[in-house]
Specification:
By secondary structure, this protein is α/β, with parallel strands linked by helices. The protein has 17 helices and 15 strands. It folds into 2 domains: 199 residues, P-loop containing nucleotide triphosphate hydrolases (Rossmann fold, 3-Layer(aba) Sandwich); 105 residues, CBS-domain (Roll).
Length: 403
């Protein structure tokens, strides 16, 4: 991998083998490419992680996803050195964490990383604010200062009004938000989240995902997020790392994972994903290329070309109407009367699944920026094509795998 000053976490060919002699025969087998099950059979040692390398730039949400036992938590534990690696290097903000010991290690963890786990052990008899400020208390920060930091963290997760409550007076989702606030309270650069939302019911879980992304827009942390749920991974990850039997199978953006799965194994996961959820309008739209309704119908048809229609914009570039190719064909000469105003709009970041219904009307969707200006023309055919392409891809993989 190339050196890059912008990255906060970097694993270089990291191996972790569990057992009495991690550097013995088991390690030789792993390096020779023998799989996890076979290594276990031949050596009695468990392969935790097998030659894992990745780098996480500052500000990224990097999701590690895989089935139970694939090595996700082991990866995370090498980053905070809850585990010693068998081989390889782990860098956090330029420090080789595996060389840290004792109080240096503790101080490094405290300063650099906040952690959120599935079952966040809140102190039952301490108030929410004292739970959130606990780590700061351990660091010897005064009550006044830690309350200030805790309230700031609580406001990020929307729990300010509950600062004086006890954990048991809050719902599961709220308790998990207290855990998140606790991790945020010391304002670390890195958040390590291991199955942080996995115990929540689906609706609350989605809300937490949304909230995490909103918070991230404000705080710009570097987040290593572990999950066994591909939907969650694709939803919140800037990039996703898929693991199997301790090894990395694919690292890519959600779009890449979805549209170019590296192996049939990844493709199999992808089948479960609600299509269109990760592809944004801006990736599929065409340039706005608006139309002037004072043109002749023939001119207008030529201008529309192979699109379903084009938008009419006001002087500020905001769409005010839609002229479809079909309407131009029917119009005698007065195009202005053929302009319709019942079109749908979306933002460039809207995901395709959210415009699917609108596309079903067969009309182009006006993609507009924050000021309402037309930035793209989203043809219903492009949406259907894009979503169909993914389905076809998966079908292809299915045939390859199962026939
Ligand atoms: N302390 C340990 N001692 C022995 N084996 C371990 C230890 N920790 C993990 N393992 C083994 O290492 C492999 C990877 O475990 P890990 O906990 O990283 O999986 P995971 O992907 O986090 O799974 P889950 O989704 O169940 O949390 C598993 O085979 C596991 O049995
Ligand atoms: Mg785990």
């Amino acid at each position: 991998m190339e050196e890059n000053g912008n990255e906060l976490i970097r694993l270089e060919s990291v191996y972790k083998i569990f057992g009495p002699q991690p550097h013995g025969r088991a390690f030789d087998l792993v390096k020779a490419g023998v799989g996890k099950d076979e290594v276990q059979r031949q050596s009695g040692h468990v392969v935790g992680i097998d030659n894992v390398s990745f780098a996480v730039p500052k500000g990224e949400i990097f999701v590690v996803m895989g089935l139970s036992g694939s090595g996700k938590s082991t990866v995370l534990r090498t980053v905070n050195k809850l585990l010693e690696v068998t081989s390889g290097r782990v860098w956090v903000d330029g420090t080789n964490v595996q060389t840290l010991e004792g109080s240096d290690l503790q101080a490094f963890r405290r300063e650099k990383m906040g952690m959120v786990f599935q079952h966040f052990a809140l102190f039952p008899h301490r108030s929410v604010i004292d739970n959130v400020g606990y780590g700061l208390k351990v660091q010897g920060i005064t009550k006044e200062d830690r309350d200030k930091a805790s309230m700031k963290a609580l406001s990020l997760v929307g729990l300010e009004p509950y600062s004086r409550n006890l954990p048991r007076q809050l719902s599961g989702g709220m308790q998990q938000r207290v855990g998140l606030a606790r991790a945020l309270a010391s304002d670390p650069d890195i958040l390590l989240m291991d199955e942080a939302f996995s115990a929540l019911d689906p609706l609350i879980r989605r809300q937490m995902q949304d909230e995490l992304m909103e918070i991230q827009n404000e705080v710009h942390k570097t987040i290593l997020f572990i999950t066994h749920d591909l939907n969650e991974a694709l939803r919140i990850g800037d990039r996703v790392c898929i693991m199997r039997d301790g090894a990395v199978v694919q690292i890519g953006t959600p779009e890449e994972i979805l549209t170019e799965p590296a192996t049939a194994y990844v493709a199999e996961f992808v089948q479960d994903v609600d299509q269109g959820r990760v592809i944004e309008c801006r990736e599929v739209m065409s340039p706005p290329d608006p139309i002037d309704p004072s043109m002749s119908p023939a001119g207008a048809l030529a201008h529309i070309g192979d699109r379903t229609g084009a938008f009419v914009c006001d002087t500020k570039g905001r769409p005010t109407g839609l002229l479809t190719a079909a309407a131009c064909t029917r119009a005698a000469d007065n195009l202005a009367a053929a302009v319709r105003s019942d079109f749908d709009t979306a933002s460039p970041e809207t995901t395709l699944n959210n415009v699917y219904a609108a596309a079903g009307r067969g009309l182009p969707i006006a993609v507009v920026d924050g000021d309402g200006r037309l930035v793209g023309n989203l043809d219903p055919r492009s949406i259907m094509e894009e979503m169909g392409r993914v389905e076809q891809l998966i079908d292809g993989f299915e045939r390859e795998t199962y026939l």
